[in-house]
What does this fold into?
Amino acid sequence: MQMNEPVNEYNLPDAKGHYGPYGGIFVAETLMHALEELRKNYEDLREDKDFLAELSSELKNFVGRPSPIYFAKRLSEQLGGGQIWLKREDLNHTGAHKINNTMGQILLAKHMGKTRIIAETGAGQHGVASATVAARYGMECVVYMGSEDIKRQSTNVYRMKLLGAKVVPVESGSRTLKDALNEAMRDWVTNVNDTFYIIGTVAGPHPYPMMVRDFNSVVGNEIKDQMPTEIGRHPDAILACVGGGSNAMGVFYPYIGEKNVKLIGVEAGGSGIDSGKHAATLCAGQPGVLHGNRTYLIQDKNGQIIETHSISAGLDYPGVGPEHAWLKDNGRAEYVSVTDAEALDAFHTLTRVEGIMPALETAHAIAHAIKIAPSYDKNKIILVNLSGRGDKDMDTVARVSGIHL
Ligand SMILES: *Cc1c(COP(=O)(O)O)cnc(C)c1O
It folds into this structure.
């Protein structure tokens, strides 16, 4: 594990969980103790050889790491520009990058003597990843999910139940992910003695954004070994889709000190930024506080969260990880958006041309790679983090294509 490898002078967050003016801890007094306990335990374990060896073994034998890097030769040739390479997180157990983080957090829970897992989920992917590791370790698992999302994601709800999790419908607010997060926090306050809260992305109060980034950094660290071995150098650009930002942070973080590698995050432009129906938080949002940290948010002029829209449920979050907010402001990473229609096009293109069906979230990053590849020289390398596979999106793709399954 190279999880703790220093990345040049970049050494964030600070002791209080700040990334520039972002991040921090904005929670009720009753949660401070739980967060402090978590921070202390994680600080010890992230340096602990036995813990890292155990995590490494689980990532290899249960998750299936390392995932390969793959040259999308036919797609690159068709576009006639730079070479597009894919980091195959779609080949992980449960089909996406999310298992990297849930595996790290459940091991942490085990070492802290916790027996009950709670999680929030929107599309259900983080709920499934949490229920999977809870089953693996024989722990009780409760997943909070907005009742609106439960209706939209019945297959994932059933999947969680098969894995032994209890799915609790949340009826407050817009009955979606942000409301599920609030409810999970409430549960944690009440049951903090035996309960570990697994957050699904690089958001929430410190130490979560740092912890989730570290657990996902295994992806970027693998690329850092794989690219020089296979082609003798680092990529010229690294692209990833950004919902909360965990798969992007996982590939960006190990490269922050490599100033020649361009980092590009791709947000959900929905029906277009001008339509107001999107989830492009960094491209179109303003700083504020939500879910325990300061970051960019999609909000109205009174600071009320505006309902977001994206064809991909996993990008449909009105906030974004605070470290991305800082990387945007200081210019180290660039953030762009891609519309539903462009993502859907990219989904079909990658499926037809390479035989790889990406998740609709991932299709946003693919769409941007397709856009920029023609302007890159043939010897330049664009690496896309293929965060997940598209099997879960069959119903959505069929529906928007007017096909009845
Ligand atoms: C959940 C999900 C995302 C979005 O979450 P991030 O925290 O931004 O990575 C992206 N891709 C896939 C496949 C997902 O399941």
